[in-house]
Amino acid sequence: MARLTAALLVALIGGANPFVLPGAPRVSTLQTPRRPHRTALQMARDLYETLGVPRGSDDRTIKRAFRDAARKWHPDVNDTPEAAERYKEISQAYATLSDPDKKQRYDMYGETGLGGGGGPGGGVEVNLEDIFDSFFGGGGGGGFGGARRQQNGPIQGDDLRADLELDFKTACFGGQEKVRISHLEKCETCEGSGVKPGAQVRSCATCKGSGVVMQVTRTPLGSFQTQTVCPTCRGSGQSVDAYCTQCSGQGVSRKAKQVSVTIPCGVDTGNKLRVAGEGDAGARGGPAGDLYIFLSVKNLNGFERDGVDVTTRLSVDAYDAILGSSESIETLDEPSFSVDVPAGTQPGTKLRLKGKGAPALGKATQRGDHYVVVDVEIPKKLDGDSKKLVEELRDKLRK
């Protein structure tokens, strides 16, 4: 009982003015213990339920749920009549559950532990910078309400993808291939700046070089100061006398070219190769992205590959399987390679040719094995003499 009383006293005298902007002085409010006034917001459902998360959720889950809900119900993006009230509810819930001390008191004592349920009169503080970040990505270094300067420096270009189909033996042993691509290259005339050589560049008069302009939006929570891209300079922060005519001020131009690619040994379908700097050129003279080449391998008639091992099949007649023989097969290295079929070979027997398989990826001297599966062909029709000979052989072997 003493513990509950102490918690109530802390909650009652520890409240702060609701929705305090970061850096603003806090004003303590003393709550009277007799019959606290309960607003419709204070009578709201369970705070966890308000955010749509189960009890005991960690900070990361709570924050993610709040951001999702804020994007849905913020009055700037949702003009339904209930949006403002719903947004106020989720803001209050997040303000409590994102604060470790308040969350612990709420988990232990419910609304009572918050000194009035966390409503507008209960002194709950909402971090408006966190709410702002849920819409605009956070960061910027200027703090909430401050001008966050547009990044006008070089930006790395995008990565590109190309697909390349290899023949079976090139995939095994490697080689040189060419890929035709179309990508953005830095304009040689303006060197990627987009500005006509000799033209003057000044700070934009509208945004004072920041690339953004501020807008004030009034909501039930108060006034929100938000940033939008400057309509005059379109975010560059600059006013240019004349743009480059070669690239129309873009700083880049599209060109088609062939790229020579070295294929390492041992590649297979699904592997990808990276060619540095062959992606799109970056904006404002930024470095180019990379080119990623996704490989697929054609089938080679009669060959099956499993990693570094390959398998082929060899058909022999029943007499050679019984007596043994020497057969010629194709390997990865040679069009004709002699392999011995032992006497008494059974159908499905696997003959192993060590070191005749595919090389390991990037390691030409480390090779797998070549397996030869023997298929025994049984004659379907025999003439009288042949049938008699087989019967004699059968009778002799059974004795």
In short:
By secondary structure, this protein is α+β, with helices and mostly antiparallel strands.
SSE ordering: HHHHHHEHEEEEEEEEEEHEEEEEEH
The helix count comes to 9
Structural class: alpha+beta
CATH architecture of the largest domain: Orthogonal Bundle
Total individual domains = 4
Termini separation (Å)? 101 Å
User: What is the assigned CATH homologous superfamily of the largest domain?
Assistant: DnaJ domain
Globular, elongated, flat, extended or rod-shaped: what is the shape?
Answer: elongated
**Arithmetic mean of pLDDT:** 79
The total count of strands amounts to: 17
User: Main β-sheet: number of strands, strand sense, barrel status?
Assistant: 4 strands, mixed
CATH class of the largest domain: Mainly Alpha
Q: Beta-strand level of the residues, as a percent range?
A: 25-35%
Rg for CA atoms: 38 Å
Strand order of the largest sheet: 10-11-17-14
What is the CATH topology descriptor of the largest domain? Helix Hairpins
Low-confidence stretches: 1-44, 116-130, 136-150
User: Helix content range of the residues, please?
Assistant: 10-25%
